[in-house]
Amino acid sequence: MSRMVTIISTMETQVSNGPSGTSLPNGPVISTNGATDDSKTNLIVNYLPQNMTQEEFKSLFGSIGEIESCKLVRDKITGIHDASAGQSLGYGFVNYVDPNDADKAINTLNGLKLQTKTIKVSYARPSSASIRDANLYVSGLPKTMTQKDMEQLFSQYGRIITSRILVDQVTAGISRGVGFIRFDKRNEAEEAIKGLNGQKPLGAAEPITVKFANNPSQKTGQALLTQLYQTAARRYTGPLHHQTQRFSLIPPFGKGPDPNNSTKPILDNLLNASYGVKRFSPITIDSMTSLAGVNLTGPTGAGWCIFVYNLSPEADESVLWQLFGPFGAVTNVKVIRDFTTNKCKGFGFVTMTNYDEAAMAIASLNGYRLGDRVLQVSFKTSKQHKA
DNA sequence: TCATATT
């Protein structure tokens, strides 16, 4: 019965690290809200992979700079055993100590491909009731109408935060005639409904329907259970139809969901040489595991540790996220640096949760040409001898 | 008849 499961809105607080250098006796401290002014330290991150955890989220954004607080937003579910582990809503917030790091995070991580998603990193608007429930569902759109056309139609009612037209999965690219428009303010959305619901767009045969979109946090119990089932099932079978997408390296920047969000891909120089080039190493997984240092670091606690060799002195953590993120769940990355120069010593480590994803990343990235360097990628062994 | 953007 769907009424056995009720959803309450989330009012979680953001987990804080506390002031730097201060040790916290009882684990994470609960801060008051993140920045509520339009400070340049607080970011919103959208389109995160469903299975990304708070820890991975923090690890990813912590690689940019010191984090004041961060939070992966989740559903709070009552009526189900163990309500503490709510489903990720696919977005989160990061508040940096230094505004420069927030800027750097946008430039570096916006557009990053993680599994099947392309994440979006942008400044969070000041939290306010007026910006909530400003999302519209539009149906009956002419199949020829583009996202741009739709935005043009709706922009007369206010500032559009994001828009999307759903497309057919199989015939990839053909409009399903339905879409979403998120306005900056709820009252703008209300005006758009009044002005456009039941109206025919210039020259269209049929009128469109404009209404508020379903709120994800008030989904029915049934819908949530099927979603839980589907995400659970996917863990075992793997997202088969996404394989080609997962294992190709394509430019992560420039085609974000929001064209208004400018990206300055500072990693372009690092990744340019490899754009569009699929490089699959001929070395098989089996042959790799039987290579010299047989003592693989097993799935000890965190996951599978991967050794990455021949990184440039300028390499940073975000490069490793760029490279490995598309292959599956990455829990941690680390670039080994010289203590005095702070330059990369030529290698680093990546931890991945699942063996098959780690193996696929290795098979694809070992021998991968990054700029003018050829990477050596393998499972970490207990001893990395020098050749 | 709807993918997941405001703590």
Mean pLDDT: 75
Sheet with the most strands, sense and barrel status: 6 strands, antiparallel
The helix/strand series, from N terminus to C terminus, equals EEEEHEEEHEEEEHEEHEHHHHEHEEHEEE
Bin the helical content.
10-25%
Shape: elongated
Count of domain modules: 3
For this structure, the CATH topology of the largest domain is Alpha-Beta Plaits
The number of E-state strands comes to 20
Distance between the termini: 63 Å
CATH class of the largest domain: Alpha Beta
* Strands in their spatial order, largest beta sheet: 3-2-5-7-4-10
CATH superfamily of the largest domain: RRM (RNA recognition motif) domain
Radius of gyration: 23 Å
Any guess at the CATH architecture of the largest domain? Answer: 2-Layer Sandwich
The assigned structural class equals: alpha+beta
Binned strand content = 25-35%
Helical run tally: 10
Low-confidence stretches: 1-13, 16-36, 78-84, 227-295
Question: Could you characterize the architecture of this molecule?
Answer:
By secondary structure, the chain is of the alpha+beta class. The protein has helices at 54-62, 99-109, 147-154, 186-196, 221-237, 243-246, 268-271, 285-289, 317-324, 355-365; strands spanning 6-8, 15-16, 29-30, 42-46, 67-74, 76-78, 88-96, 113-114, 117-118, 120-123, 135-139, 160-167, 175-183, 209-212, 304-309, 330-337, 344-352, 369-370, 373-374, 376-379. The chain has a six-stranded antiparallel sheet with strand order 3-2-5-7-4-10, covered by helices on one side. The structure holds one DNA strand of 7 nucleotides. This is ELAV-like protein. GO terms for molecular function: RNA binding. Belongs to the RRM elav family. InterPro entries: ELAD_HU_SF (IPR006548), HuC_RRM3 (IPR034915), Hud_Sxl_RNA (IPR002343), Nucleotide-bd_a/b_plait_sf (IPR012677), RBD_domain_sf (IPR035979), RRM_dom (IPR000504).
